[in-house]
Amino acid sequence: MSKAVIISAGTIADYEYTKAFIAEDDFVICADGGISHAKMMGVTPNLTVGDFDSYKGEVTGDVRRFNPEKDYTDTDIAVKTAMEKGYKEIILLGATGTRLDHTISNIGLLEYITKTGGEGYVVNENNIITVIDKKTVIKPMKGWHLSLIPIGEVKGVTLKNLKYPLENYDLKFSQSLAVSNEFTDKDAVIDIKEGSLIVIKSRD
Known about the structure:
This protein is an alpha/beta fold. The protein has helices at 15-19, 34-41, 74-84, 100-115, and strands at 4-7, 27-31, 47-50, 63-65, 89-93, 119-123, 127-132, 136-138, 145-150, 153-160, 166-172, 181-182, 188-191, 197-202.
């Protein structure tokens, strides 16, 4: 099954780089103002959702409008819609930017995707972010760093094949111990006994 791609109204600085994450057979959902980014990339969404408080232009195709006084963000609605349609891999574009409240909330949606059996990624020009709750193998990316941010406390974190290994360590949110690790020439292995980790591959 193809993946779902959600385009939100955050910052996209490089449309060519961003568009490369969208395959021809992907199901594309625009969340409100994300329709502006889709137009800049020449992408026609399969569905547009939102209260349209940040986009006032014409919207065509399949559209689902919501009351602005709602309990969920437009990106949250888009994620839930994608999962209801059966998509297990979901990429969020335009999900970061100057609004840190939205950025953090969108990263939080990655945990929801993981806990419901899917794989979610927030992607921008300098970061690829996901959430894991089990043993994971990551291919090395030359010139990129690997950081792990625990959601609360994560017990029994073990890191192998990285410049700075770790063995059965209980990692807390208040610690920066696992920030800015470096890949080796081997696949990085992250193991967890309990909890969820935000995994960030980043470059300057």
